[in-house]
Design brief:
Elements lengths: L2 H65 L2 H16 L7 H25 L1 E8 L4 E5 L15 H9 L3 E6 L4 E10 L9 E9 L1 H12 L2 E7 H7 L2 H7 L1 E2 L6 E6 L2 H6 L14 E7 L2 E10 L2 H5 L7 E8 L1 H34 L3 H26 L9 H18 L3 E8 L2 H8 L1 H18 L5 E6 L2 E7 L3 H16 L13 E7 L6 H17 L5 E3 L2
Parallel strand pairs: 15-16
Antiparallel strand pairs: 1-2, 1-5, 3-4, 4-5, 6-8, 6-11, 7-8, 9-10, 10-11, 12-14, 12-15, 13-14
């Protein structure tokens, strides 16, 4: 076989290997991006669930407080007796008189509650079932029965217990806290008068999450469910359709941008029963859209999977998508340059076969190895902080969990998030923000041991794995990290203090990687809720 044939065969083999290299790296890069988006989506849903529980707790506290007031109990009991005496339904003159007295007694306290807690409904129901006695938020609407719509009211009256949940009512769709109201008689012969409902809009939840994370949100309701529950005049006044062609209504939205990016809910229909995150372009930006099903009180109480709508969360992922594309371009450049270099060397070897050529081959091979090592480091490390990136950190942590399980060793995790970092970027610019991130990364590397490893998990969030470390020692490291960051001084910030919140968690030997990270993230969330600039360990 002559040298030309050898050269052509080797060229084809090298070209094929180059194409395989590019394809594998493209797939790995896309897969890492999708994993990151999925993890962010799960984290966002967890933040949503925690905030929702907090709003439910506020609604229940308000309803319990009002239901415990003696004058409310006495007037409500008088109203019940008047309605019964006057034939049920809306009652007559006596019921109207009591209703007005109850309304006037509540107005002074109702407005501050609306202002402070975002409450928008205060509704007295008579049983059995659900008979409206007084809507403080809509005093001219009363006497209607809602047994087939307000299941949370029916169940609370029947079970004589406080309940919380989401329901679509005649006037509003909202988050409800429902408390039974008892007469002021003795404990042995107290009479159940009815139930008191305090409701809030999903807008409260969306505003809180937006303040904490900057994520934009939208809550959608199924058209069929809305039409079967709400009065027509309430539909036209309280909610709007996502678009003219859409079959979804918007219950709450934090920013009109969400409805612009996702103008039609029908494209989510095939995935309506699952948590899903995907990317979508809008203008010159890319957005990660996370959506998951919304269930009302009735479906949750019955253990059903039928959903009444969807929760949609929107995050700007332009930086991640563009970084992914840039990485692909780099891979192509490396492949082309490598192919060209090897082809030249191969030609020299085949045609001349001299020692000098072999020497050049060694030099160029070293250069290729150096380029590959450089690329490998670029693919594993965050370009700004030199810490592990999200994907590589997760791979290292998974390996460490396997080692800890085999050797029955302890393993702890720290999740760190800089407080109010967006304000630093907004006030001093992104260059100052980058300097802060680099200094914090340097602090982390000084604090941890050689056996520990750290990563930049996204934005202003860092994560640290502590092998052979229990929760007590991990919490001590977390406290030192908080103190070190708080003492950080940068000329770029004009004396402004940088603070961080840290959550510490220890692996129990059985949790999955995502469950361990979620536990540390929950501890971080608690640190934020407790006032920031502190460390909190998972219970």
């Amino acid at each position: 076989m002559n040298s030309r044939k050898i050269f052509l065969i080797l060229t084809l083999l090298i070209l094929l290997s180059d194409l395989i290299f590019v394809g594998i790296n493209y797939y790995a890069s896309r897969h890492a991006l999708n994993l990151t988006l999925d993890a962010n989506g799960r984290s966002l849903r967890h933040s949503y669930q925690l905030t929702l529980e907090l709003v439910y707790e506020n609604m229940l506290q308000i309803s319990t407080y009002i239901a415990s007031q003696k004058n409310v109990q006495q007037l409500f009991l008088a109203g019940k007796q008047a309605v019964t005496h006057e034939g049920g339904g809306a009652g007559g003159a006596s019921a109207a008189d009591v209703r007005e007295q109850l309304y006037q007694s509540l107005i002074p306290s109702w407005s501050p509650l609306m202002e402070e807690y975002g409450a928008r409904q205060l509704h007295f129901h008579l049983g059995p079932g659900s008979l409206s006695f007084l809507r403080v938020h809509k005093p001219n609407k009363f006497g209607d029965r809602m047994d087939d719509v307000r299941h949370i009211i029916v169940d609370s009256f029947q079970d004589k217990q406080a309940k919380v949940g989401f329901e679509i009512g005649r006037i509003y769709a909202g988050l409800r806290g429902v408390t039974p109201v008892w007469s002021t008689a003795g404990p042995d012969d107290a009479e159940l008068i009815g139930v008191l409902e305090v409701g809030s809009s999903y807008q409260t939840v969306l505003d809180k999450i937006n303040q904490q994370t900057g994520v934009e949100m939208m809550v959608l309701l199924n058209q069929e469910k809305v039409h079967s529950a709400m009065w027509p005049e309430s539909i036209s006044k309280q909610i709007v359709k996502l678009s003219e062609e859409s079959s979804c209504y918007v219950e709450a939205i934090s920013n009109p941008l969400v409805s612009e990016v996702l103008a039609n809910c029908e494209e989510l229909e095939p995935y309506k029963h699952q948590l899903r995150t995907f990317t979508q372009s809008h203008g010159d930006r890319f957005y990660g859209i996370t959506h998951f099903p919304l269930h009302d009180y009735q479906s949750q109480a019955a253990g059903e999977t039928k959903q009444v709508g969807m929760v949609v969360m929107l995050m700007d992922v332009t930086e991640s998508v563009m970084a992914n594309r840039q990485q692909l371009k780099l891979n192509l450049v490396y492949a082309v340059v490598g192919f060209a270099v090897i082809e030249i060397l191969l030609y020299l070897v085949v045609v001349y076969g001299s020692r000098r050529v072999h020497s050049l081959i060694d030099q160029q091979t070293d250069e290729i190895h150096r380029l590959k090592e450089f690329y490998k480091n670029r693919s594993e490390r965050d370009s700004l902080t030199a810490l592990y990136n999200h994907r590589c950190f997760n791979e290292r942590l998974q390996q460490e969990m396997g080692r800890a399980k085999r050797s029955h060793a302890q393993l702890s995790l720290l999740m760190c998030d800089l407080d109010n970092f967006k304000l630093i970027n907004d006030s001093f610019g992104h260059l100052a923000g980058d300097a802060v991130l680099q200094q914090v990364a340097a602090i982390i590397e000084r604090l941890v041991r050689s056996s520990d490893f750290a990563g930049r998990y996204g934005g202003e969030e860092f994560i640290v794995a502590l092998p052979e470390t229990g929760l007590h020692d991990a919490f001590g490291i977390a406290q030192r990290l908080v103190e070190s960051i708080a003492s950080l001084g940068l000329d770029e910030l004009d004396g402004r203090q940088v603070t961080a919140s840290v959550g510490a968690a220890m692996w129990d030997g059985q949790e999955s990687l995502s469950e361990l990270i979620q536990k540390a993230d929950s501890a971080l969330y608690n640190a934020k809720q407790q006032g920031k600039n502190r460390a909190v360990s998972a219970s």
